[in-house]
Amino acid sequence: MDLHLGGKKAVVTGSSSGIGESIAKRLAQEGAAVVIQGRNEKEAQRVAADIEGAGGKAMIAIGDLSTDDGAQRVVDKALTELGAVDILVNNAGAYPVLGWMETTPDQWMQLFNQNVVSAVRMIRLLVPQMKKLGWGRIIQIASAVGVQPMAGLPSYNVTKAASINMTVSLAKELANTGITVNTVTPGTIMTHGWEEWARGFAKTRGWGDDMAEIERRAVQELLPNSVGRVGRVNEVADLVVFVASPLAGYINGANLRIDGGYVQSVN
Fold this sequence. Notes:
The protein has helices at 18-29, 41-53, 68-82, 105-133, 154-173, 192-205, 211-221, 233-243, and strands spanning 9-12, 33-38, 57-62, 87-90, 136-141, 179-186, 255-258. Strand 2, helix 2 (41-53) and strand 3 (57-62) form a beta-alpha-beta unit. The protein folds into 2 domains: 9-189 and 232-258, 3-Layer(aba) Sandwich (Rossmann fold); 190-230, no CATH class. Helix 1 (18-29) crosses helix 8 (233-243) and helix 6 (192-205) packs across helix 7. The protein is built from 8 helices and 7 strands; from the N terminus they run βαβαβαβαβαβαααβ. By secondary structure, it is an alpha/beta fold.
Protein backbone atom coordinates (compact mmCIF):
# COMPACT_ATOMS: atom_id res chain seq x y z
CA MET A 1 0.00 0.00 0.00
CA ASP A 2 1.34 3.44 -0.91
CA LEU A 3 0.92 5.65 2.15
CA HIS A 4 1.74 8.82 0.20
CA LEU A 5 4.48 9.83 2.63
CA GLY A 6 7.07 10.59 -0.03
CA GLY A 7 8.39 14.10 0.53
CA LYS A 8 6.88 14.43 4.03
CA LYS A 9 9.15 15.62 6.84
CA ALA A 10 8.99 14.13 10.33
CA VAL A 11 10.43 14.59 13.79
CA VAL A 12 10.34 11.50 16.00
CA THR A 13 11.37 12.24 19.57
CA GLY A 14 13.15 9.55 21.55
CA SER A 15 14.08 7.79 18.32
CA SER A 16 17.63 6.67 19.10
CA SER A 17 16.31 3.31 20.35
CA GLY A 18 13.23 1.16 20.93
CA ILE A 19 9.80 2.05 19.60
CA GLY A 20 10.93 5.48 18.44
CA GLU A 21 13.76 3.99 16.39
CA SER A 22 11.37 1.60 14.68
CA ILE A 23 8.90 4.42 13.91
CA ALA A 24 11.64 6.57 12.42
CA LYS A 25 12.88 3.73 10.22
CA ARG A 26 9.39 2.90 8.95
CA LEU A 27 8.66 6.55 8.12
CA ALA A 28 11.91 6.68 6.18
CA GLN A 29 11.04 3.47 4.34
CA GLU A 30 7.83 5.16 3.19
CA GLY A 31 9.77 8.11 1.80
CA ALA A 32 9.65 10.63 4.62
CA ALA A 33 12.75 12.58 5.68
CA VAL A 34 13.20 11.97 9.40
CA VAL A 35 14.86 13.83 12.26
CA ILE A 36 16.25 11.44 14.87
CA GLN A 37 16.03 13.05 18.29
CA GLY A 38 17.68 11.83 21.46
CA ARG A 39 20.26 12.66 24.09
CA ASN A 40 22.75 9.97 23.08
CA GLU A 41 24.49 11.25 19.97
CA LYS A 42 26.24 7.95 19.22
CA GLU A 43 22.97 6.01 19.19
CA ALA A 44 21.20 8.71 17.18
CA GLN A 45 23.99 8.59 14.60
CA ARG A 46 23.63 4.80 14.43
CA VAL A 47 19.90 5.04 13.64
CA ALA A 48 20.46 7.77 11.04
CA ALA A 49 23.23 5.72 9.41
CA ASP A 50 20.93 2.67 9.26
CA ILE A 51 18.25 4.74 7.54
CA GLU A 52 20.61 6.30 5.04
CA GLY A 53 22.26 2.94 4.39
CA ALA A 54 18.83 1.64 3.40
CA GLY A 55 18.32 4.52 0.97
CA GLY A 56 16.35 6.82 3.26
CA LYS A 57 16.93 10.35 4.45
CA ALA A 58 17.72 11.10 8.10
CA MET A 59 19.48 13.66 10.24
CA ILE A 60 19.96 13.97 13.99
CA ALA A 61 18.99 16.65 16.49
CA ILE A 62 20.44 16.19 19.96
CA GLY A 63 18.69 17.94 22.82
CA ASP A 64 17.01 17.45 26.18
CA LEU A 65 13.30 18.04 25.69
CA SER A 66 12.76 18.44 29.44
CA THR A 67 14.15 21.97 29.06
CA ASP A 68 12.91 24.87 26.95
CA ASP A 69 16.37 25.43 25.49
CA GLY A 70 16.83 21.77 24.59
CA ALA A 71 13.49 21.61 22.77
CA GLN A 72 14.22 24.85 20.95
CA ARG A 73 17.58 23.50 19.74
CA VAL A 74 15.92 20.37 18.39
CA VAL A 75 13.23 22.32 16.54
CA ASP A 76 15.72 24.85 15.18
CA LYS A 77 17.87 22.03 13.82
CA ALA A 78 14.85 20.27 12.28
CA LEU A 79 13.55 23.41 10.58
CA THR A 80 17.01 24.38 9.36
CA GLU A 81 17.60 20.94 7.86
CA LEU A 82 14.10 20.29 6.52
CA GLY A 83 12.58 23.72 6.01
CA ALA A 84 9.31 22.54 7.57
CA VAL A 85 7.92 19.68 9.65
CA ASP A 86 4.74 17.87 8.62
CA ILE A 87 4.75 15.08 11.23
CA LEU A 88 5.57 15.17 14.94
CA VAL A 89 5.71 11.91 16.87
CA ASN A 90 6.00 12.58 20.60
CA ASN A 91 7.63 9.38 21.80
CA ALA A 92 10.38 10.58 24.17
CA GLY A 93 9.97 9.86 27.85
CA ALA A 94 11.22 8.09 30.93
CA TYR A 95 10.03 4.87 32.56
CA PRO A 96 11.09 4.75 36.22
CA VAL A 97 10.19 1.53 38.01
CA LEU A 98 9.15 3.08 41.32
CA GLY A 99 6.14 2.33 43.50
CA TRP A 100 3.91 4.69 45.47
CA MET A 101 6.04 4.92 48.61
CA GLU A 102 9.31 5.10 46.65
CA THR A 103 8.35 8.05 44.45
CA THR A 104 8.89 11.47 45.99
CA PRO A 105 6.79 14.52 45.06
CA ASP A 106 9.83 15.96 43.27
CA GLN A 107 10.16 12.77 41.23
CA TRP A 108 6.48 13.03 40.27
CA MET A 109 7.11 16.55 39.02
CA GLN A 110 10.27 15.59 37.16
CA LEU A 111 8.55 12.73 35.37
CA PHE A 112 5.56 14.86 34.41
CA ASN A 113 7.99 17.33 32.89
CA GLN A 114 9.85 14.60 31.00
CA ASN A 115 6.82 12.71 29.71
CA VAL A 116 4.16 15.39 29.27
CA VAL A 117 5.60 18.90 29.25
CA SER A 118 8.35 17.83 26.83
CA ALA A 119 5.59 16.98 24.33
CA VAL A 120 3.89 20.30 25.05
CA ARG A 121 7.13 22.11 24.21
CA MET A 122 7.43 20.37 20.86
CA ILE A 123 3.76 21.00 20.03
CA ARG A 124 3.99 24.72 20.83
CA LEU A 125 7.12 25.10 18.72
CA LEU A 126 5.93 23.15 15.66
CA VAL A 127 2.19 23.76 15.42
CA PRO A 128 2.43 27.36 14.14
CA GLN A 129 4.36 26.31 11.04
CA MET A 130 2.03 23.30 10.53
CA LYS A 131 -0.86 25.76 10.48
CA LYS A 132 0.89 27.72 7.74
CA LEU A 133 1.32 24.49 5.77
CA GLY A 134 -2.38 23.71 6.23
CA TRP A 135 -1.50 20.08 6.99
CA GLY A 136 0.06 18.16 9.84
CA ARG A 137 0.09 15.05 11.95
CA ILE A 138 0.77 14.98 15.70
CA ILE A 139 0.96 11.53 17.29
CA GLN A 140 1.47 10.92 21.00
CA ILE A 141 2.88 7.58 22.10
CA ALA A 142 1.16 6.66 25.35
CA SER A 143 0.78 3.32 27.14
CA ALA A 144 -1.95 0.91 28.13
CA VAL A 145 -1.34 1.90 31.76
CA GLY A 146 -2.74 5.31 30.89
CA VAL A 147 -6.10 3.58 30.45
CA GLN A 148 -5.74 0.63 32.82
CA PRO A 149 -3.24 1.72 35.50
CA MET A 150 -1.17 -0.69 37.55
CA ALA A 151 -0.62 -0.42 41.29
CA GLY A 152 3.06 0.02 40.54
CA LEU A 153 4.49 2.79 38.34
CA PRO A 154 1.96 5.35 39.64
CA SER A 155 3.73 8.44 38.32
CA TYR A 156 4.26 6.84 34.91
CA ASN A 157 0.59 5.77 34.76
CA VAL A 158 -0.50 9.36 35.32
CA THR A 159 1.77 10.85 32.66
CA LYS A 160 0.39 8.49 30.02
CA ALA A 161 -3.20 9.25 31.02
CA ALA A 162 -2.32 12.93 30.64
CA SER A 163 -0.96 12.33 27.13
CA ILE A 164 -4.20 10.65 26.07
CA ASN A 165 -6.27 13.50 27.51
CA MET A 166 -4.02 16.12 25.93
CA THR A 167 -4.55 14.63 22.48
CA VAL A 168 -8.32 15.19 22.62
CA SER A 169 -7.95 18.76 23.82
CA LEU A 170 -5.39 19.58 21.12
CA ALA A 171 -7.48 17.96 18.38
CA LYS A 172 -10.34 20.29 19.33
CA GLU A 173 -8.00 23.28 19.47
CA LEU A 174 -6.73 22.52 15.95
CA ALA A 175 -10.12 21.80 14.38
CA ASN A 176 -10.35 22.72 10.69
CA THR A 177 -6.63 23.47 10.36
CA GLY A 178 -5.67 20.35 8.41
CA ILE A 179 -3.75 19.04 11.43
CA THR A 180 -4.88 15.83 13.12
CA VAL A 181 -3.85 14.75 16.62
CA ASN A 182 -4.01 11.14 17.80
CA THR A 183 -2.63 8.84 20.45
CA VAL A 184 -1.14 5.42 19.81
CA THR A 185 -1.26 3.36 22.98
CA PRO A 186 0.93 0.25 23.10
CA GLY A 187 0.61 -2.55 25.58
CA THR A 188 3.62 -4.67 26.47
CA ILE A 189 6.19 -4.38 23.68
CA MET A 190 9.40 -6.37 23.22
CA THR A 191 11.90 -3.54 23.49
CA HIS A 192 15.47 -4.01 24.71
CA GLY A 193 14.46 -2.43 28.00
CA TRP A 194 11.51 -4.79 28.43
CA GLU A 195 13.69 -7.81 27.68
CA GLU A 196 16.18 -6.73 30.34
CA TRP A 197 13.40 -6.25 32.89
CA ALA A 198 11.77 -9.56 31.95
CA ARG A 199 15.03 -11.50 32.27
CA GLY A 200 15.66 -9.97 35.68
CA PHE A 201 12.14 -10.77 36.83
CA ALA A 202 12.40 -14.30 35.42
CA LYS A 203 15.37 -15.00 37.68
CA THR A 204 13.25 -14.23 40.74
CA ARG A 205 10.58 -16.67 39.53
CA GLY A 206 12.84 -19.47 38.27
CA TRP A 207 11.60 -19.21 34.69
CA GLY A 208 14.98 -19.91 33.13
CA ASP A 209 16.88 -17.98 30.45
CA ASP A 210 14.94 -18.81 27.28
CA MET A 211 13.26 -15.61 26.08
CA ALA A 212 10.39 -17.42 24.39
CA GLU A 213 9.55 -19.17 27.66
CA ILE A 214 9.93 -15.94 29.63
CA GLU A 215 7.56 -14.20 27.24
CA ARG A 216 5.02 -17.02 27.52
CA ARG A 217 5.11 -16.99 31.32
CA ALA A 218 4.97 -13.19 31.52
CA VAL A 219 1.85 -13.06 29.35
CA GLN A 220 0.22 -15.89 31.27
CA GLU A 221 1.00 -14.71 34.79
CA LEU A 222 1.75 -10.98 34.78
CA LEU A 223 0.45 -9.11 31.74
CA PRO A 224 -2.30 -11.21 30.14
CA ASN A 225 -3.78 -10.34 26.79
CA SER A 226 -6.06 -12.17 24.38
CA VAL A 227 -3.35 -12.62 21.73
CA GLY A 228 -1.06 -14.52 24.06
CA ARG A 229 2.26 -12.82 23.33
CA VAL A 230 4.17 -9.58 23.71
CA GLY A 231 3.97 -7.06 20.86
CA ARG A 232 6.89 -6.10 18.63
CA VAL A 233 8.21 -2.61 17.93
CA ASN A 234 7.54 -2.94 14.20
CA GLU A 235 3.84 -3.53 14.90
CA VAL A 236 3.59 -0.22 16.76
CA ALA A 237 5.59 1.50 14.01
CA ASP A 238 3.27 0.21 11.30
CA LEU A 239 0.25 1.70 13.06
CA VAL A 240 1.99 5.03 13.71
CA VAL A 241 3.10 5.35 10.10
CA PHE A 242 -0.45 4.77 8.83
CA VAL A 243 -1.85 7.36 11.26
CA ALA A 244 0.86 9.78 10.09
CA SER A 245 -0.13 9.35 6.46
CA PRO A 246 -2.63 11.28 4.32
CA LEU A 247 -4.74 8.10 4.22
CA ALA A 248 -5.63 8.60 7.90
CA GLY A 249 -7.13 12.05 7.47
CA TYR A 250 -10.47 11.09 9.06
CA ILE A 251 -8.86 9.78 12.25
CA ASN A 252 -8.65 12.61 14.77
CA GLY A 253 -8.67 12.86 18.56
CA ALA A 254 -8.51 9.07 18.79
CA ASN A 255 -6.75 6.75 21.21
CA LEU A 256 -5.65 3.78 19.12
CA ARG A 257 -4.71 0.86 21.35
CA ILE A 258 -2.23 -1.74 20.14
CA ASP A 259 -2.06 -4.01 23.17
CA GLY A 260 -3.20 -7.48 22.14
CA GLY A 261 -6.41 -6.97 24.10
CA TYR A 262 -4.66 -6.18 27.42
CA VAL A 263 -7.06 -3.34 28.19
CA GLN A 264 -10.50 -4.80 28.76
CA SER A 265 -12.84 -2.04 27.66
CA VAL A 266 -15.23 -1.19 24.86
CA ASN A 267 -12.75 1.34 23.40
